Each structure stands twice: as C-alpha cells, then as structure tokens.
Amino acid sequence: MATASSKPISDQSDLSSLKGQLPLIGLTGGIGSGKTAVSDQLAKLGAGIVDTDLIAHLITASKGIAIPLIEKQFGAEFIDPDGALNRSKMRSLVFENPEARKALEAITHPLIREETNKQAMRLAKEGVPYLVFVVPLLIESGTWLGLIDCLVVVDCPEETQIKRVMHRSNLTRNEVERILTAQASRQERLSHADMVIENQGSLVDLETGVQSLHQKILQIQKEKTSSS
Ligand code: ATP
Q1: What is the mean pLDDT of each run of 10 residues along the chain (228 residues)?
Q2: 27, 36, 49, best to mutate for ligand 1 pocket (most atoms within 8 Å of CB)
Q3: Which ranges of 80-97 would DSSP assign to H, the alpha helix?
Q4: Which of 3, 27, 79, 119 is paired with 9 by a 20 to 30 Å CA distance?
C-alpha cells in the first residue's frame, strides 16, 4: 500500500494527521454549481473523493445512523414511512427556526465528521495521490479553511445554478433563491479560492478544466516532494 509518506496512518487519527502526507483539497461551490460533476470526473482520474454531502444523505437515509437520534429529538413525524428523514419537512423547520437547525446539526455534524475521517483515512491508506473533500458549505463552516492545502471553487452564474436545481428537483424558483441567499455569495466564495473551475458550458467542456486541475494538483505534490 503506497502512501505519500512513511508516517503511519491510524484509523483513529483525525484529518490533521494527514496534513503533509498528501495534498488535501477542499472542493466547494454553491447549490447546483457542479461539485458532484467535478468530483465524479476527478474520481475517474484517480483522486480520492470524500463527499460530505453524500455522507450527510447516507446518515439520514433509511436505517441511517442519525435517524433514531433525529426521531428522538424532533418526533416521528419527521421520519418517512421507509425510515428516512423527511427532508422537505425538516428543511422547512430549520429555515424558520435557528434553534432547530442547531439541534439538528448537533446530531449530524459529529456523525458526518466521524465518517469523513474514516473515509479519508481509508483512501489515504489505499495510496490515492490526493484527497478531495466535497463540502457544500466549506466557506461558511470556518473549520475547513485551516485544514486544507488548496481550495477549489466550482463556479457558474447564479441563473445557471437556479435552472439546474429546478431541473433536477421539484424545488420552485423561490425555494432555490432562498437557499442561494442563505449560502455564501459567489463573490465571497471566489475570494477564498486558490483555483476556480468554470462550469458554465457543457459537461465535455468541464472535463477539460477538470483534467487541467488534476494535473496542477499532481504538480503541486511533485514540487512538494522534490523540495522536502
Ligand atoms: P448540490 O450542491 O445541489 O449538491 P452540485 O454542486 O453537486 O449540487 P451537481 O449535482 O454536480 O451540482 O450539478 C447539478 C445538476 O446540474 C445536476 O443535475 C448535473 O447533472 C447538472 N450539471 C452540472 N454541470 C453541468 C454542465 N456543465 N452541463 C449540464 N448539466 C450540468
């Protein structure tokens, strides 16, 4: 099992123990900007992907580890008959009620963190050249910026985001606009970016940008290795 350094990686250690061992890349962008499209393409090129949004969905899906805790805190009416979180009901509640949002996050965040750590450790042990953490609210969270080596922002005009999200879900324009307003602005996100992936064209256009991003990250790793 090749890792980028000879330091041992224990399953118990937290993410900061991976710092310096392989590049830790944060990937963020607004709703519908194309984070999943980018991470899917990076995965095909061999990157290790840890998608915190996917993890959040898994723990709140049917039989997910967060479900009994959510049911206890919020009541059975927030759980669908199949045992999954009723997302639209919870979304409405937490939009109106900051205390409820805090209570939900107090349940989900530690579980997401634990699973994120596990997946990152496992991928690092497998010898991926770098790790990409897909974090929708990376800028807003405040905790990720100190951990990652490089922040990649997926960017497109807000109107494109709205159209894509409306196309893929049953959310109305108003609902999507409300989510956009609750997230960091496009400008704020871009001001933190080390690299920007433009995703305004086709998925084929996106591939060109993703391949160049992959090469740049490998180059950073190469330069680091040769200077150490
Ligand atoms: P979210 O934050 O909501 O999870 P995301 O940033 O991960 O979204 P994606 O899921 O990758 O965004 O993309 C949103 C939708 O737009 C998807 O249906 C995806 O297939 C589509 N999409 C993404 N990029 C493009 C593109 N360049 N051309 C056409 N469709 C695209």
Answers
A1: 43 76 96 97 98 96 97 97 96 92 95 95 96 95 90 97 94 93 94 96 96 94 74
A2: 36
A3: 87-96
A4: 27
Residue whose structure tokens are 């433009």: 198
What pLDDT is stored for residue 12 in this prediction? 45
Question: Whats the size of the chain, residue-wise?
Answer: 228
**Domains of the chain, each with CATH number or no CATH:** 15-227 (3.40.50.300)
Q: Determine the residue of 49, 156, 164 to mutate for testing ligand 1's pocket, defined as the one with the most ligand atoms within 8 A of the Cβ atom.
A: 164
CA 222 to each of CA 22, 44, 149, 151, 213: distance values in angstroms, whole numbers, following the listed order: 10, 20, 14, 18, 14
pLDDT at 223: 78
pTM, two decimals, is 0.90
- Look at residues 185, 173, 176, 178 and name the one whose alpha carbon lies nearest to residue 96: 178
Pocket of ligand 1 (CB under 6 A): 29, 31-37, 53, 136, 164, 168, 199, 202-203, 206
- pLDDT, position 13: 54
Q: Rounded to an integer, what distance in angstroms lies between the CA atom of residue 78 and that of residue 57?
A: 15
| Ligand 1 atom nearest to CA at 37 | 11
